[in-house]
UniProtKB/TrEMBL annotation, chains A, B:
Residues 1-158 form the X-Prolyl dipeptidyl aminopeptidase PepX N-terminal domain. Residues 240-259 are annotated as: Disordered. It catalyses: Hydrolyzes Xaa-Pro-|- bonds to release unblocked, N-terminal dipeptides from substrates including Ala-Pro-|-p-nitroanilide and (sequentially) Tyr-Pro-|-Phe-Pro-|-Gly-Pro-|-Ile. Keywords: Aminopeptidase, Hydrolase, Protease, Serine protease. InterPro entries: AB_hydrolase_fold, Galactose-bd-like_sf, Pept_S15_Xpro, PepX_N_dom, PepX_N_dom_sf, Xaa-Pro-like_dom, Xaa-Pro_dipept_C. GO terms for molecular function: aminopeptidase activity; dipeptidyl-peptidase activity; serine-type peptidase activity. Residues 240-252 have a biased composition (Basic and acidic residues). Removes N-terminal dipeptides sequentially from polypeptides having unsubstituted N-termini provided that the penultimate residue is proline. Its EC number is 3.4.14.11. It comes from the Bacteria. SUPFAM superfamilies: alpha/beta-Hydrolases (SSF53474), Galactose-binding domain-like (SSF49785), X-Prolyl dipeptidyl aminopeptidase PepX, N-terminal domain (SSF81761). This is Xaa-Pro dipeptidyl-peptidase.
Amino acid sequence: MKINQFGYVPTQHQQIIDELRDIRFLDLENIKIKSPLHLFRSLLLKSFSVHQGETTRIAKIASMMATETVDADSYTNGSGTLSKSAFYNVGLQLLGFTVDLDFSLTNPLKMMTEVGLPIAEVTDPLTRDDVIDAWYRLLNTRTKFGQLLIDKLAGEGYYHQFLADETFKRPLIFNGKAQAVFDTDHLVREVVYVESPLDIDHDGRRDLLKVKLIRPAETDRGLTVPVVYTANPYGEGTNDKWSESWSHDNNRPLKRKQPNNFTYRDVQDTYDHSKVPVPRTINGHTKQAEETFTMTWIYSLNDYFLARGFAVVYSAGIGTKDSDGFRTTGTRDETISAISVIEWLHGDRTAFTNRVDQIAISAWWATGNVGMTGRSYLGTLSIASELTGVGGLKTAVVEAGISNYYDYYRENGLMVSPDGDDADVLAEFTFSRQQSAADYAQIKEPWLAHLKQIKRDQDHDSGSYNRFGDARNLLKENHAKADILLVHGLNDGNVKPAQVWNLRKALKSKSLTQKLILHQGQHEYLNNFRSFDFTDIVNLWLTNKLLNVANQANQVLPNVIVQDNAHAETWHGYQDWGGQEASIQIYQLGDDQMINPGGHTSFSDHLDKSQFETYTKDINKWRDDLYSRDGSPMDGHCIRILTPPLVNDLVINGRPSLALTVKSSQMVGMISVALMDYGKANRLTADPQVLASQQILTGYHWRKDDLKEFLPKKKANDVKRVVQGHINMQNRENAYKVDDLEPNTEYQLNLVLQPTFWRFLKGHQIGIVIYATDMAYTVRGNQDIRYQVNLASSTLRLPELK
Amino acid sequence: MKINQFGYVPTQHQQIIDELRDIRFLDLENIKIKSPLHLFRSLLLKSFSVHQGETTRIAKIASMMATETVDADSYTNGSGTLSKSAFYNVGLQLLGFTVDLDFSLTNPLKMMTEVGLPIAEVTDPLTRDDVIDAWYRLLNTRTKFGQLLIDKLAGEGYYHQFLADETFKRPLIFNGKAQAVFDTDHLVREVVYVESPLDIDHDGRRDLLKVKLIRPAETDRGLTVPVVYTANPYGEGTNDKWSESWSHDNNRPLKRKQPNNFTYRDVQDTYDHSKVPVPRTINGHTKQAEETFTMTWIYSLNDYFLARGFAVVYSAGIGTKDSDGFRTTGTRDETISAISVIEWLHGDRTAFTNRVDQIAISAWWATGNVGMTGRSYLGTLSIASELTGVGGLKTAVVEAGISNYYDYYRENGLMVSPDGDDADVLAEFTFSRQQSAADYAQIKEPWLAHLKQIKRDQDHDSGSYNRFGDARNLLKENHAKADILLVHGLNDGNVKPAQVWNLRKALKSKSLTQKLILHQGQHEYLNNFRSFDFTDIVNLWLTNKLLNVANQANQVLPNVIVQDNAHAETWHGYQDWGGQEASIQIYQLGDDQMINPGGHTSFSDHLDKSQFETYTKDINKWRDDLYSRDGSPMDGHCIRILTPPLVNDLVINGRPSLALTVKSSQMVGMISVALMDYGKANRLTADPQVLASQQILTGYHWRKDDLKEFLPKKKANDVKRVVQGHINMQNRENAYKVDDLEPNTEYQLNLVLQPTFWRFLKGHQIGIVIYATDMAYTVRGNQDIRYQVNLASSTLRLPELK
C-alpha cells in the first residue's frame, strides 16, 4: 500500500490555530489546556463528539491502543507525556488502519514511512504546540479508505452538529479546501430552459436547452454559490440500438485515393454565424422554477462538491431530450450550446421556466463563477468551452477530453475507429430527442436529412482531413483564459493521449495556469483511488478558482503529476511533459546492436482465411500473436526490432516518432507501428479494481463511493505495448494532401506515435513492431499487399528524460 | 424481454376507487369528471404533479404520442372517446418503453402480450369506470426498469408533495403494499447495546450486543413501526487476511476411518443452558440513545422498506466489533445472540445506551412486530431465529440460508469444502472484535483457546457427523411458528439447495404458511431483477405479516415460484416442490437403451502429475474435461452414462438419487456423481448481469439500485451440470456410523443428490458422470485408487413432474 498526497497546503502554526478554531476542534475551553497529553485527549473526544454521551465517546477512545499495553483512554487520562509513537499509534487507528495487520504498535512510524503517510515535525515527547500541529496534519492525512481524516469525520457527522449554529462558517475552508458543511438532505433541484443563440433544427426559433441544477438550500436564505457544471450529452439517454444501424463495417479494403494538391485552405471551414432568429419576448420574470427532476446517473465527484457548498449544473445540449436542435458531433454549434449555460449562470443569457410561457428566470443564487467537470465527451465540451474564453468560466477539470475530432476517428489519412464508429454514429447515439415520441414525430424528416448530410460530409472511406473535420478541430480558435486541470490515461485507447498533448501545447501560448495528471489507466475517472488524492486536489483547485480562496493551489500542485507505470501506487511530480527536460535519442533500426528475432525486413499483410476470421473475432489473440517476440502465427506478417536489454532504467517523456523507408507492393498502403516494452513484469492493469465497496463518504449520509486502484496483475508477462501510430502511405505530407503511391517504390514516412511518459526498467528491451492492418483500429480488408522496410534508412526517435 | 408479476392483488372497482383516493389520484374534483378522456387527462396531469407549473405538466403529456399521429395532450384535450390502444400507447410511455424501439403505436397490445404486461379487462373505447380500473392496474404494472409505476412516481416525488398534509395516511397501503411515503431525509440512526442471556467469553458478565437501528423520524411524533431486522455477522468487518492462516489444505489424501458402531446418541449434543450470570443492575431508564452510526454496507431491500415506514435494525452478534462474546459458527449461542435483539424489540429484554452506565432504553418506537431479511449467514440466522419460535418474530425472508452446518462443509462422511474452509476459518473470519485493538488485547488468549477448541472438535479430517456438527444442526429443535418466505438459487454451490429443501420439510409439520422462490442463479440477492417482481412480493408479504394488513398475501402468492432454466426471464407458480406432483422414474444404468460413450465401467482416480497440477490450478478446465461427453483427458477417470435424446421436455422436481454398486481397489474410497443436461443451448448465466445502472428508485432522492437479470449466454454450449452428490464409501449407512471397507469388494451405495427443479428440453440427453475426487469440493490426494461400478445393478431415480 502506498498513499501519495499532493493536495496538502503547508501551513504555519498561527494559521493552524485559526483553522482549528474555525472547524471547532479548538475552542475557548480546550485552548487553555496546558498538558500536551490532555489536549490530545480533548481533541480525541471532539473527534467522536457526534455521539451525545461522554461514556460512548470515552469508549471509542478506550477501544484504541496507545502503546503495546495501554489503551488510549488510560494513556490520555494519565499525567505523563505524549510520545510520538503513542500519538501515531492512535492516529493510525483513527485513520482506519488495523493494529497487527497494517502496523505494529512498537513502531508506527515504520509503516507510515513505508506507506508514505506524513509524520509531523515534532519533538518526542510532543509539546503543546506539537500536538496542535500534528493533529492538524493528521486531520489532513488520508485514511486507509482513500479520503482525508477530516472528510471521514465529516462523513460520520462531525460538522453536522454545528449546522444549527448561525455563526458557523459556510462555506468553511480547511487547509485550503471547502468542507462538507452543507446539508445535502435539503438540496434544491430545478429545471430551466436556456435560450441559446442557435437554431440548428431550422424551425425559426432559438433552440431552448434543458438545464438541471442542484443548489444548496442555503441559497434560499441569501447565500450565493459557485457552480460545478457538467455538459453531458449522454445525460438524457442514449440510442444504443438505433445508432448501431449507422455504424460502418471495418471489414473492407483500404481504397486508393485520387492524389490531389490540397493546401489547408482547401479544407478550411468557416463557421456561419448568421441566421440566428431573434430572442423570444420575455413575458415576465420569476425567481421560482416550476420543474424538478430525479437523477439516475451518479457522478460522485460532483456530489462531493454539493456537500461543500457548490451548486451542480447538468446540461445535455442541443438535440437531446427536452431540448431543441440537433446533435452535430463536435461542431461550434455544440460549443455554443455548452457555453450558453455558462452565460446564463454568469448573467449574460436568458433562461425560461418552461418551454412555452417565456417567463425568464435568472441564476440569482449563483456567484457567476463556473468550473466545468467531466470525462470523455463531457470533457470535450469543457475543452470547447475553455477555448472560447467565455465569461464566467473560471476553470475546467478535464478528464480524457477530445481537442480535435480528426484525431479521434482518424490518423494520418487513415480511419482508426474501432467498431466502425464515426461522427454520424455518435450523433445518432446522443440524439435523445428521438426517445420523446411526440417531439420526434415533428422533426423526424429534417433530422434524418441532417444525419445523412453528416454521413456524406465526414467521407468515412477516405480518412483524410477535410472541411468536415476542420469544423470539428476545437484547437482552431483559441481564446482560452481560464486556468485548467487536465487529466488523461496513458493507456486510453479511446480518447488518445495526443488529444491532451496537443491541447497543452496550444494553451501554452496563453496567459493561464495549466496542470496535468497522467495516470496509467484507460478511459477512467480518478476520483476514488487510494494511492492518489485526486479529489482533494480538485477541491484545492476549485476552492481557489471558484471561491477565490488564496490557498496557493498554483504553487502547491506540481505542473505535471505522472503515475509510474513500473511501480504500483507511485505518483511523481514533474515540471513539464515533453519539454526541455527530455532529449531525443535516435535508434537506427538496421543497426548491428538492434535485434531482429525473425530476421524479417518485409512482410505480407495477407492472412489465410481462417486465421483472419479467428483474429477478427478475438482481437486479444491477434494482439498477443503480433506483440510476441517471435514464434507466433503473426511471424512474417510484421517486423519486430528490439534493443538490447537496458543497462539502466530509461524514461520516455514525450512523443516517440519513426522515420521509415517503406515500399508497398500495391498502389495503396498503410503502416502501423507499436512501441513495445519487453521484459517480464507484473504490470499494472489499466482497469481500476474495487478495493473496498462503498467506503468513501462524500458527505454526511450522502453519496458513498467504492475505493479503487490500478493494481499489478497477478501474473507476470513479457509484453506491454506502450504507444502506437498509424499512417496511410498516401498521406505522407499531411492528413489532407493525398500523395500518389507507386507499387514497389521506396517512400519516406514520418510517423509520430502517441505521446507518453513511460519507465522502461533496467533489463527490459524497447521494441518496435511494424505491421499494416490493425485489427482493432483500421479497416481490415485482408488485402494481398507486401510491405518492405529499408531498415538501414529507418530510425526511431525517443524523447528520453535526462 | 419478459416481465413476470406475482405480487398483484386482484381488486374490486369500489376498493380501487378508495385506494386511488388514498393515494390522491382521485379527489373531490376529478371524481366528478364524466368524460373518460378527460378523466384520463386529469390522471395524467396528476402523474406529473410534482412539477409546480401546469405548462410543464402539459408539456410532459405533450411529449407522448397517443396515436400514430396525435400527441397525448391534443388527444386528451379533445371531445372524443378514449381508445384502448391510445390508453396503452400512453401507458407504455409512462412505463418507460420507447416508441418504435420497444413497441409500435399501431398495436401496443401486441408488445404487452409478448412481454407479459397486464392488460385491463376494459371495453374499447373505455368507459369512465374502465379508466379508473385500467389506471389502477397501470400504476401496479412494472416499468421497463423493474419497478411498479407507482414506485417510480414515488421515486420522482409523487408522494412527497403530500407529506406536509397531516391527513395524508402514513403508513399508506396501495394494492396491498406499503408505499414510499416516509421521509428518508430525516431518518434517526441510533446504537444500543442489548444484554443477551449469554456469557460466551466467560468474563462473568452477560454479553452485550451492539445493535444499529434506523427508524423514521415520524416515530418521534408518536408513530410506532414494525422492524425489518438483519442479523449480519459480517456487518462490523471481516478478518480476510487473518482467517486465511486457519484454512485447511485440500491437497491431502482421503484417510481410512476406524469403523465404529455409532448410533445417533453417540453424536448427540445437548446445549448447556446453565452458567449465565445475572443481569446487570438497571441504573435508570431513558428514551434517548447516545450513539449514532454511519453505514457503509448498502442493502437495498432494507433501504426500500425504510422509505415505506419500517424501521431497519442490524446486529452483528457475539464476537463482533463493539459486542462481547466469541464467534462459534452456528451454535445455539449465535441463535440466542440473534433472537436477543428480537426480544428487545418485542419488549422482552433489556438494552443499554452504552456499555458502561447501565441506563436502559426500550424500543419504544416499535410495534413489536419483527421480520428478518438477509442472505447466506444472514439468512442462516433468520432460520435459526425462526426455529426458536421467539415472540415478536412474525416472519422471515430467507435468501440462501443454512439449516444444518453439517451439509454446508460436509456430505455423507466426506469434507466438501472449497478452499479448505471449516467452522474455525469462519469463526476467525467474522471475529471482528480482533479489529478493535484495545478490546482484543484483553481477550486474545481465551479467544485463541476457544478457536483451537473449535478446530479440534470439528475434526476436519474425518468428515463424519459428530457432536460438534450436531450442535450446529439448526433443524434439531423446531418451534417455528412464523410464516416464512424462502429464496434459493438452484445453482448455488455455496449454500446448496438441500439446505432449503430440508428446512421446508421440517416446517411442513408446523402450522404456518411457507412460500418458496427458486431461481437459476448462484448465491445471489433477487431484489433488483427486471423479469421478476421480488421486491413487490416481499412488500406484499411484510405488509401482511408485520403491518397486519389483510392483503391476501398467502392466497395471492403461489406456494412455489420457480425460474425456468430453459426459457429466459420465465417464472412459473407451482403447488409444491418435490411433493406428490412428481413421480419417481427409474433408469437402469446398464440398460441397453443407455449410452456409455467411452464404454467404461471402471476408472482410475489417479492422474499423472502435470495433469493433476493443471487441474488444481484451473478447476474450470477440470470441469470441462470431466463433463464433456467423451474424448477428453478425463476419459478413463470417470464413467459417463447418457439417456437417448428425449422425445419430449422432461421436468425434474425434487431430489434425484442413485443406487450404485461399487468396488474400490483400496481400503478407502469416495464416489462423486453429477447429473448432467447434455444438448446445445444458450443457457442462462448464474451470475446476474447489469441491465441498467442505478435506474431503480427505492424512494424519493433515496437509494438507487442497478437493474439486473440472469441472461442467456451469448455462446451456445453442450453441457450443464444440474446437481451433484458425494459420498464416503465408509459412510454407507449414514454420516456418523463408519463402516468397514474391504478392497475389491462390491458395496451398495445410496447417494441422494441435491434437489432441483429442472427442465430438460426435448432432444437433450440426461447424463450421469460417476467419478471420485472432486477437484472443487473434496480432498484431492491424487491417490492410486481404481473404482469399478456394476452398472447392471446400479440405478438412477428421477422425480419427474407428471
